[in-house]
Amino acid sequence: MDVKDGKTVKGVNFVNFRDAGDPVMLGAAYSRAGADELTYLDITASHEGRKTFTELVRKVAANINIPFTVGGGINELQDVERLLGAGADKVSINSAALRNPMLISEIASNFGSQVCVVAIDARQEGSDWRCYLNGGRVPSDKYLFDWAREAQDRGAGEILFTSMSHDGVKEGYANEALAQLSDELNIPVIASGGAGKMEHFKDVFLKGKADAALAASVFHFGEINIEELKLYLQHEGINVRL
Question: Which strand (E) or helix (H) includes residue 222?
Fold first, then answer.
């Protein structure tokens, strides 16, 4: 769930956002519906120089019974401690990790690798995938595969890769890049960006070799039912938690 000004929003290619509802109520509904995990990203925190929404995290923790990750505006260990104390299970860092890669190592050594998710927003530029900061607004000098390996080496427990080229387009995930990431890393890879129909989830596991698939708009706007999706994936021979 991308959160902006206290509301869940969804865009296309990281722009043109529309309101998708209350993040606490949506989280509770997804928890009841059988989602395995939730991810809350304060998508303008880094750009606006704000800290992530601690009070919202407390409300979410009180209303769901599945693990959830929180990201956006996390720049130091005190931010991590504050969010874990409010009830989050993991934190996701993106812009801060690109600016200060040592933050990955500090989080892993202080709280454990399982707490540290490194999110990578990347756009395909020719044969390369350039990583972006500040919610996709600012290009960096890092590229997807080298940066993912470095994040792993520094102690990241998971990589959450969002293809900016596929985000919100609903034509499938970036399966070739995901498969390469999966082959090169030995930590879980979470796919994000591109889900439009159930077949896209099957493809991201079989072709993209992803360990998990994140999706937003297809669930927010009732296009895919989580229970039906899981039954479909099970029928396709994919191991899911029912």
Answer: none
Residue 192 pLDDT > 90: yes
Whole-Å CA distances, 70 to 119, 120, 209, 224, 235: 11, 14, 24, 24, 32
Residue 197: CB atoms within 10 A of its CB come to 15
Rounding to the nearest 10 degrees, give the CA dihedral for residues 137, 155, 161, 6. Answer: -60
Residues 6+ apart with CB under 8 A from 218: 170, 195, 196, 197, 224
pLDDT tens-place string over residues 40-79:
988 765 444 455 578 889 999 999 999 999 998 899 999 9
Residue 16 has pLDDT above 50, yes or no: no
Side-chain-facing half-sphere of 207: CA atoms under 13 Å: 12
What CA–CA distance (Å, rounded) separates 34 from 60? Answer: 16
Residue type for position 91: V
Cβ–Cβ under 8 Å, residues 168 and 174: no
The H or E element spanning position 166 is none
Here the tokens at position 213 are: 């698939």
Which structure tokens are listed for 106?
């500090």
Catalytic residues: 2, 121
The structure's pTM equals 0.90
Mean pLDDT of all residues in 178-196: 97
Average pLDDT over residues 147-171: 92
CB 186 within 8 A of CB 157: no
- Residues 180 and 146 sit within 8 Å (Cβ to Cβ): no
Tokens of 215: 């999706």
Contact predicate 41/19, CB 8 Å: no
Tell me what pLDDT residue 52 has: 57
